[in-house]
Amino acid sequence: MVQIWQMEPYPCGDPRLPHHLFPPKKITPDELSKRTGTLYWKLDTLDQVALAKRLTTLKLEHNFKKEDIFTLDAETTANFDDKIEELFEESSVPFEQARMIIEGTAYYDVEDKNGQWVRIFCEYGDLILIPANTCFRFTTTPKNFVKMRRFYKEDAEE
């Protein structure tokens, strides 16, 4: 089951740590969608037919024309610490984007309508869709490795 929670308001230290509120405030995928517009699916990667259908539907419904594979690995990524710092900077883009984790683990943080950050722990088989103009940031977990498929609109600048 996916893990989603409200983050502490001013996380300090290593962004790759969980940064829970105390006591932790867990959030359901439905609450995530209501608060941020972000959609979440757990895909059955063993059923290749169902997986292909889900991804084809996603691409058609959201007009994703481009995709790539992105790997972030402490052992092979040049300037890994700088890259982590860059990806953890808050950003917002004028187009939807989708991410599917195919190896490793990562955190996606999404800002809700009240300015509070929600953290999504993403692992193998997780697919998220972040709406256009939504503030988000990204980091690995302390395992320092993630490999994902990224889906884009044709006119989106990467």
From TrEMBL:
GO cellular component assignments: cytoplasm; nucleus
GO MF terms held by the record: acireductone dioxygenase [iron(II)-requiring] activity
Stated family: Belongs to the acireductone dioxygenase (ARD) family.
GO biological process: L-methionine salvage from methylthioadenosine
Functional description taken from the UniProt entry: Probable inactive acireductone dioxygenase.
Predominant location category: cytoplasm
Keywords assigned: Cytoplasm, Nucleus
InterPro entries on file: ARD, ARD_euk, RmlC-like_jellyroll, RmlC_Cupin_sf
Subcellular location: Cytoplasm; Nucleus
Pfam family, one: ARD
Protein name per UniProt: Probable inactive acireductone dioxygenase
